[in-house]
Amino acid sequence: MYGKAFAPEYQGALTSLSVNSSLEDVLAAGIEQLRAAERAGRHAEAARSGLAVAEAQRRLGRIADADLAWKASYRAARRAEDTAGRAWALWSGGTLARQRGEFALARRLLGLAAELGERGGDVVVRGYSLAGLAETGRIQGDYEAVGRLHEQLLAEARRRGEARHTVWALSGIAQMHRNTGSYDTAFAMFEEAARIAADADDRRGHAWALRGLADLASVRDGDTERALALLSEAESTCRAMNLSSALAYNHKMRGNVLYRAGRHAEARELYEEALAEFRAMSEPRGEALARLGLAKSLARLGRDRAETAAELDDLARVLERTGLRHAREMVARAQEEFGVRAEAVR
Q1: Per its UniProt entry, which superkingdom is the organism in (predicted)?
Q2: Any idea which architecture 9-107 has in CATH?
Q3: Burial of 333 (0-12, 13-18, 19+ CB in 10 A)
Q4: Domain 243-346, what architecture?
């Protein structure tokens, strides 16, 4: 049995904020409490309020501001000798590093966060940090290394009845099954994630699960209209909560659905929109995936073969450097699909 979803990253004076609070509202409340704490010299409270500011900025795609905020939160926690507060700040910094495509830094910060969480007796930040490490490996395509950790974290979340963490773990494992061709298993897990998220009023988790269901409705069932309807439902949540990254990935997925349906001109427009959104928030993984979709759409619309070859080759180099194994394999399949020679990656 799961309770209502809650947001443990909203701490101190901000614990009354909901997991579904608009990020602009979270940011405004966080800044207000942070300034009050700083004026009063309450370093522990400044660290906790600063964490909410950092997370709101990150999720809004304001990368530079998020970077300043998590570091300030860490410094405040250190001044307060708050070990768990330091762990939460490092978790935020590691999550931001992953979003920016800095995977080695993400692993280092998240690993430190997990250690400090254990030392500080905060099982939640330890779990979130281990989850961050698992997600980093999953995004890079290292499924064998992180699959067991995902399963372990799912079991822990189920045992504690933590709806939000259960939804995250289910969606992550489902994505790995989807990417390795186990569509039925993936669909069932996304369905469970969506159901738990809805019951727990976790609108963010519900939107991500709907995106996974839409992908499978398209790729497994060929049901374009159902996929688009699911994405529209998820998009309304993304807009209501100002979820910039989730909205960009929603638009990229809508492009995927349209591309599979042979609606290449419409797909091109969605990929262009998603690409602009990812670039605005400096999210290289999303940018690379949107570039890939755009390159494929343009090729179907008659783009010069040499230009397609050059674009895909450049993408392959970018993904090789950043270590995004699954995305690199997607580029290789596109090169095969369009019969363009892949140059040796240097």
Answers
A1: Bacteria
A2: Alpha Horseshoe (1.25)
A3: exposed
A4: Alpha Horseshoe (1.25)
Angstrom distance (rounded) from CA 249 to CA 246: 5
Q: How many residues are listed for the chain in this entry?
A: 346
**What distance lies between CA 53 and its chain's CA centroid?**
18
pTM here? 0.90
| Cβ pair 198, 210 in contact under 8 A | no
Alpha-carbon 178 to chain mean position? 16
Report pLDDT digits (tens) over 143-185.
Answer: 888 888 999 999 999 998 999 999 999 999 999 999 999 999 9
Among candidates 107, 88, 85, which has minimal Cα distance to 98?
A: 107
* 197-to-59, 112, 121, 335 alpha-carbon distances in Å: 19, 29, 27, 38
Long-range contacts of 300-304, Cβ-Cβ distance < 8 Å, separation of 24 or more? 300/259, 300/264, 301/264, 301/265, 301/268
Q: Measuring CA to CA, which residue among 312, 317, 318, 279 is closest to residue 296?
A: 312
